[in-house]
Amino acid sequence: MTEVERDYEAEASEQGWNKDFDGPNKTDAKTFVERGEQIAGILKSKNTKLEDRLHRLEQSNKQFGEYHKKTLESQVRKTAETIKE
User: Fold this and answer.
1) Which of 18, 20, 46, 50 is least surrounded by Cβ atoms within 10 Å, i.e. has the fewest?
2) Continuous segment of H or E residues that includes residue 53
3) 3-state DSSP call for residue 11?
4) pLDDT digit string (tens) for 33-58?
5) Is the Cβ–Cβ distance between 46 and 38 less than 8 Å?
6) 10 Å Cβ neighbour count for 34?
7) In the chain, what are the domain boundaries?
8) At 4, is the secondary structure helix, strand, or coil?
9) What angle do CA 35, 15, 12 make, to 5 degrees?
10) HSE toward the beta carbon, residue 6, CA cutoff 13 A
11) Cβ contact 33:15 at 8 Å
């Protein structure tokens, strides 16, 4: 679909644009749609970075949990051996 065929008013209206709005931030339909697409791209990029960070934190948390479990098991064994003596 070319830019000429694109119905910006319909798209903008679906996204919440109000053609009767007359405030200081009034914008035309095309600008409204284009800004929305730009913001969506930025948000997608940030979301991807946050998902990657979350994955790394989850892996780190899992590794810490495994380390803690091994340390605790070792301490329990040492304590049990001390009690037996």
Assistant:
1) 20
2) helix 29-84
3) helix
4) 999 999 999 999 999 999 999 999 99
5) no
6) 14
7) 47-85
8) coil
9) 65
10) 11
11) yes
